[in-house]
Amino acid sequence: MKQRAISGQSGLALIMVIVMIAITSALLMSLTDSTYISMRLNRTAEQRSKAEYILKSAINLAAVLIKSDNNDTDDRRNDVWMRFEQGAEIPTEWLGVNDPNTSVSLLISSEKGKIPIKSLVRGSQADPFWPSVMVGLFEALDFDNGPLSTAVTADGPVQLPSSKQLVASLIDYLDEGTDSFSQDDMQGIEGDLPPTEEFRNDGRIDSLASELSSIPGFSSGRIQALLPFVSERTSGQINISAANEMVLRALVRAAASDLSDADEANKIVGCRDPETGFSFDNNFQSQLRECGVDERFINLASSGKIGTKGDVFYVIAKIEYGNAIRFMASAYILKTAGSRMPTIDTLLLY
User: Are residues 46 and 137 located together in one domain of the fold?
Assistant: First the structure.
């Protein structure tokens, strides 16, 4: 009996030892995981802190590059900042970054080459030209046909408002009144909305990306297609040296509806030297005539609708670490006269 009691006690002791070992192992594993997660979080926080300073340095670099552009007109290929027009990696030594696993890139684009959305309204009135330009852009983007003309809902695809209806609603959102916009066959909807659903009505727009979705008809697909071609930071004039083909097509449609917008846009783009990217100078009307551009488009210059100068730039800086962590910053850079450095405005880190 005594032998059996000793044997039972030994077995119980063994079980307790095994249990203690299991608990200790679990605690060690938990501590290891916690330490690993803590290290990862600390590492990410450290990278985020470094990224903020590096991205701000990249934005400042963009300002210096833009400052070095002393041309009276905008967007010649020999401008230093044009190296980053399509986005390019910055040599890390320019920013004092020595980590081989870190890359920093910069994109600089001229906002004056985009359609100025604020020009859709002048106080409570719309300049008839700019709604026509915006309709032309929407039509060129196939908002009335194809995938962007419909939206998928739980009940199936539904037809979205036409380009003209979309522009009228956009003007209703931008203007300061609560009456519906009306011009030719464009009719707004704000006057029919209940007071609780009225548009913003303060004559401005702060963020196209976030605000357009509150206007009926602006689906996510339409907004994504539209953003590269419009600007909330400029007004009154489009720089045809910086404007891309889609913007030029919209201008041509508004200047003369019987013209082939694609053909005229190609003529305008063709005026730029394909080797150097040489753009228009102060005699751009003569240059356009030599390229065979229709006189009705050239006449836009006399009304101040087109020009060749640009003083507002949009900059995106991006930093990527070897472990696929990415941080970005964006800002508007306003070019100033004289020897002063450009102004950095609306800097965002994300």
Answer: no
